[in-house]
Amino acid sequence: SVCSAMARYAGPRLPLIVKNLVPTLSSVFDSQRITTTAFFAELLNSNVVNDLILLETMMDNMTGRQKDACMLVRMLALRGLGNIASGSPEKVRKHGAKLLASMVNGMDDKDDPHNLVALEAMSSLSKLLDHVEERDIQSMLLHIAIRIRPFFDSEQPDLRQSSIVLFGNLTKFSEGNCEVFFEQILNGLVTLLLHLQDPKPEVVKACKFALRMCGPSMGCEGLCDMFLNHLREDRSLHYGEFMNNVCKHLMQSYPEMLNRLILTNLFYFKSNWVDIRAAAPMFIGFLVLHVDEDHGQQVDLDHLISGE
């Protein structure tokens, strides 16, 4: 692109170009704000802005665009802030709290009917997480996990993929908040296991990644080993056999979870995706098969038979 060519060959002239473009970020014309924000977003992908001491200026300008009336400008500003992870990863640590706050604000964007700003916020946040300080993410961990959860079942495959990958990346930070985050893993577990039957391969790949990442936080070695061994990207999955074994481990380790797991599965009996609709009753069948007699009493049979 023009921008990467300029970053490579026009370095010394960039400070003046940036200085002249900054006023257009306040232009009354959407097209000018969009073009300048897109240009800055791409520049932040390159380390040259760091070398030329432009990073802080450009980052402040991108942060300032988060309240822009134009949705595309808000989306491109988040992309630019996420690109700092590629262009100047060492600066992410320094500005972690500010960058994370921008991503959370993007996910909470109120004027985002197609969730384009939220999508950009989730994919940018995944890029930044490798470089932020743990203390900066800890305070926001729960809010982010709860906020992205509804996207796991979005009709838009890119939203399903991005939110699930981000959830997998968040588990790296769950140790300090183990009990709190474990609750979020349990909330998402049924959905992630069912979406291994998702019609879109990129969503299946995201679920495999997220489950592998969740495994170590689940306190069940057998389950963790299963996720690591059977959910490798390059390995095809015999879903029925896999789910049978997963349910065996779940009922050995968390038999008190039976009713909760069943109720979540019942929700998917009405799923728009036929393979997921078929997977949910099979999941329940394996859970009931492997639960011991004492814990089996907690199943509400009327609820189950009516399938609601």
From TrEMBL:
GO terms for cellular component: cytoplasm. Residues 60-306 form the Maestro/Maestro-like HEAT-repeats domain. It holds the Pfam family HEAT_MROH2B_C. InterPro entries: ARM-like, ARM-type_fold, HEAT_Maestro, Maestro_heat-like_prot. This is MROH1 protein. It comes from Fregata magnificens (Magnificent frigatebird).
